[in-house]
Design goal:
Length: about 120
């Protein structure tokens, strides 16, 4: 059974940090690109950051460059999104995505940043 389980969201104040985790199972982690997306109320889902598990190549949306860092632990089959200097506009539900032969999604974790 394919599973992507996110955790680590919460309510923080502006300037604080959170680390999101995405534990994956049921498919070959090494053959997929892992991404984090987010969706705020009334807005479309947007890509935040991606990493190619094969070579470690990364991508960041301009809005998070310099503040967020994506990483993977292949032993733990876990992807992380370290989010520093959080801003109120980062408030959204964050989703983990694995894209390869198929496209898999987690259930999301809520991040709320107060000003």
């Amino acid at each position: 059974e394919v599973q992507l389980v996110e955790s680590g969201g919460g309510l923080v104040e502006a300037g604080e940090s959170l680390r999101l985790s995405c534990v994956v199972s049921g498919f070959p982690f090494d053959h997929y690109a892992i991404g984090w997306f987010r969706q705020a109320p009334g807005k479309e889902r947007e890509g935040v950051s991606f990493i190619a598990t094969s070579d470690g190549g990364t991508y960041y949306a301009d809005s998070v460059k310099g503040r967020f860092t994506i990483s993977v632990d292949k032993v733990k089959n876990t992807a992380y999104l370290q989010m520093n200097n959080l801003k109120p506009e980062d408030t959204a539900k964050y989703y983990c995505n694995a894209r390869g032969l198929y496209d898999y999604w987690g259930q999301g974790t809520q991040v709320t940043v107060s000003s």
